[in-house]
Design goal:
D-amino Acid Aminotransferase, Chain A, domain 1, 12 strands, globular
Length: 355
């Protein structure tokens, strides 16, 4: 197994990676995974030995910059502006204000009128009527790269027990009565994609979004409008991984990186997979991992990760009891919101230290 290191934001995803062999304190790693640090902080705090492969080493976290980069690569995204000066009064209702680094929908709001001002650190994005919202998980070493897809669904009642009006909310999150349901996993993703044009479109656009940003991994949030058009909202570098199902999926996927020592032919094979990130036109014949071999690797990785899953599942009984007492609350979504708030606070602290 290669000497592996994880750096970045504290949270459930980093805990999953450390449980399967990514060491936070490895001094001479052969593989480094960046769990949400921007390039400046990564360069400042991480020493990369010669020959070490870095995953997500050049993250784009600013959402305006993400949008522009993806647009230049022909990934469908909402229109964005630095400000709304020059827009007619009638056009203002078609745009919203968003922070460059927003979490949980904090700071996202409509434009209140021509005399409104854009807060520092915010930009303007076209408001798109949406009929569906998805999160697609992408890792370029997987085949296919999009290995799991979730869809947001509204609860019939909000957290206070009132009839839910979630569909009319600007942000579809737990606070506004939404939760995630899983549509595809690594075990059935190929079958699901072959039987659904919608999931195929979601997976294709999400993969293109991650490739356009130069990331190696990402959880892509995208929406579909009433006309069937898709738009990428953002790519998350450190999503919440909180339920047993989510943890098992991520143990499975990231254990693939630890299958063999990163030397000799193994390095060449991994680099071939990672190079697919820079060439979206790679042919089927050039893919390094056939589907049958991939499934065998996943079964092997899952078996060897048993101890990790035992550790990660110790709180499952407590989670079940909480769900019984608070059956109106989706625990996965609540914890995901908490993770996003932690990342938001971490960003603020980093900004404060640089001032």
């Amino acid at each position: 197994m290669p000497r592996s290191k994880v750096v970045g934001l504290a949270g459930s995803m980093r805990r999953v990676l450390t449980s399967i062999g990514f060491n936070r304190y490895e001094s001479n790693p052969e593989l480094i995974f960046n769990c949400g640090w921007d390039p400046a902080k990564f360069r400042q705090d991480v020493r990369v030995p010669d020959g070490c492969r870095v995953l997500n080493g050049r993250l784009t976290l600013n959402k305006y910059e993400q949008n522009r980069t993806m647009a230049n690569a022909s990934v469908p995204v909402p229109d964005v502006l630095r400000d709304f000066r020059g827009l007619s009064t009638s056009d203002l209702s078609r745009f919203i204000i968003k922070p460059y680094h927003s979490h949980r929908g904090i700071g996202v709001r409509t434009i209140e009128g021509p005399h409104d001002t854009i807060p520092e650190g915010c930009y303007v994005q076209a408001k798109i009527d949406k009929e569906a919202e998805y999160r697609a998980h992408v890792a370029i070493w997987m085949d296919p790269p999009c290995f799991s897809i979730q869809k947001k669904k509204p609860k019939t009642r909000d957290m206070e027990g009132h009839v839910n009006n979630a569909a009319n909310r600007l942000c579809w999150n737990i606070a506004n009565g939404w939760y995630m349901t899983r549509l595809a996993t690594p075990e059935n993703i190929v079958e699901k994609l072959s039987g659904s044009r919608t999931l195929t479109a979601v997976a294709d656009i999400a993969t293109r979004a991650v490739q356009a940003l130069g990331h190696d991994f990402g959880a892509v949030d995208l929406i579909r409008d009433p006309n069937g058009n898709y738009f990428v909202l953002e790519v998350n570098a450190c999503p919440g991984v909180n339920t047993e199902v989510s943890q098992q999926i991520y143990v499975d996927v990231f254990s693939r990186l630890l299958e063999e020592p990163l030397n000799g032919e193994a390095v060449g094979e991994l680099e071939t997979m990672l190079d697919r990130n820079e060439d979206s036109q790679t042919t089927e014949q050039s893919r390094p991992q056939p589907a049958t071999r991939q499934r065998a690797h996943r079964r092997s990785a899952t078996s060897r990760a048993g101890n990790a899953m035992e550790i990660l599942s110790r709180n499952e009984e407590l989670r079940r009891r909480i769900e019984e007492m608070e059956n109106r609350v989706n625990i996965d979504a609540v914890q995901q919101e908490n993770e996003e708030m932690a990342r938001y606070l971490q960003t603020l602290e980093d900004i404060a230290r640089r001032m």
